[in-house]
Design goal:
- The chain has about 375 residues and is mainly α.
- The protein has one domain: Up-down Bundle (Growth Hormone, Chain: A).
- Helix content is about 80%, strand content about 0%.
- It contains 14 helices and no strands.
- The protein is globular.
- The relative contact order is 0.13.
């Protein structure tokens, strides 16, 4: 009986964390937060600058907050980020003027960088502990699909609620983050061995082998392996490719957020803006499930190439469709669908590829 309880514990912990990740998609102001600032004294240029500051902040804060995650653990980093998001929602009600909203955008960006990377890292560690790393993409795709569905539902509700009361919207979101904090506290973070530990033992030596020679040879082997750039050239080339993809991903996110301003200035109502965002998020949910299906049937590299081409073509079509609002409404979710497919594919690929050397290389400290 105790054995069954121990076996069920990792699965229960993983399910709880997946439920938490899905709940983080419930963000009521995601589709209308720029409209909120526009209705409270900011002009279009100031709102656009606030959006730019937010995107820039997510880049600048990534390194220091990443250190917190590595030093104190993924869970501690995420607890900090969630608490800051609760403070951000209260602050949005108290902020006044351009400087006030700029400060809130920086606070929001700072909070999200505590979550960015830590959420997927903790998911990977939980899946690896209970089922092995090969199941990560399946769990990640389904969890992110649930998150996008929650985003779609909350975007629609947020648009309806914003038309009634902005105060109620932001107070409700603060309460949601408090609930998420409670859920996250209940999640048990697995203990991960430091990078210096060995997962694969070094081969046994023959009794007649000169140990000094072996140690000298091993030292030279690891020194060359750690310094010669050609050893990891394919990985660094792939990282450079992903950096360009991340820049494109941020550009697409800026377009998605800035569409709030475009729709508001053309007279589209808040519920209609929320509906558009909801459809986009549902398309994202379908993208995660589609990506999981494609990577099961085709080579991961092939999937990346075709999704990259489809994403590029869909964004080329957007200026063509801009002349007709109905065509733009149809083309935008399609472009975001391919963007999300591509984004989820390369992020999962990076997570899996980056884990391979730790599983298949010897540890120099053991030689």
């Amino acid at each position: 009986m105790q054995f069954l309880q121990r076996a069920a514990a990792p699965d229960h912990n993983l399910r709880l964390y997946c439920l938490y990740l899905a709940s983080t998609g419930f963000v009521l102001d995601r589709a209308v937060f720029l409209v909120y600032m526009g209705q409270h004294g900011l002009n279009v240029q100031q709102v656009a600058l606030c959006e730019a500051i937010f995107q820039l902040g997510t880049v600048l804060f990534e390194i220091p907050t990443g250190w917190v995650s590595d030093r104190f653990g993924r869970k501690a980093s995420m607890l900090t980020g969630t608490a800051l998001l609760a403070a951000y929602n209260v602050g949005m009600l108290l902020a006044h003027g351009f400087i006030g909203y700029i400060s809130m955008m920086l606070l929001c960006a700072f909070a999200y960088t505590f979550l960015s990377g830590s959420d997927t890292s903790l998911l990977y560690e939980l899946v690896e502990t209970g089922h092995g790393s090969k199941r990560y993409l399946s769990y990640s795709s389904k969890t992110m699909a649930g998150q996008q569905i929650m985003m779609g539902v909350s975007a629609l509700l947020g648009g309806l609620l914003a038309a009634h009361s902005w105060t109620m919207l932001y107070l409700l979101m603060s309460g949601v983050y408090v609930v998420e904090l409670v859920m996250l506290v209940a999640v048990h973070e697995p203990k991960v061995k430091p990078d210096s530990d060995c997962r694969v033992p070094a081969p046994a030596l023959h009794p007649d082998t000169d140990t000094d020679t072996v140690h000298h040879t091993s030292y030279n082997y690891w020194r060359i392996r750690s310094t010669h750039w050609t050893t990891y050239a394919p990985i660094w080339a792939f990282v450079g490719f992903l950096a360009a993809s991340a820049a494109l991903d941020m550009t697409a996110m800026s377009y998605q957020n800035s569409s709030q301003i475009i729709f508001a200035t053309t007279g589209i109502s808040l519920p209609a803006i929320g509906l558009f965002a909801a459809l986009s998020k549902l398309a994202n949910a379908a993208a995660y499930l589609l990506t999981s299906l494609l990577t099961k049937r085709f080579n991961r590299t092939t999937v990346l190439i075709w999704l990259c081409a489809a994403q590029a073509l869909s964004f080329i079509m957007l200026p063509i469709a801009a002349a007709k609002p109905t065509a733009l409404l149809a083309a935008s979710p399609l472009a975001l669908l391919f963007r999300r497919c591509y984004s989820s594919s390369w992020k999962a690929s990076l997570r899996i590829i980056w884990s391979v050397p730790r599983e298949h290389e010897y540890c120099p400290s053991s030689l």
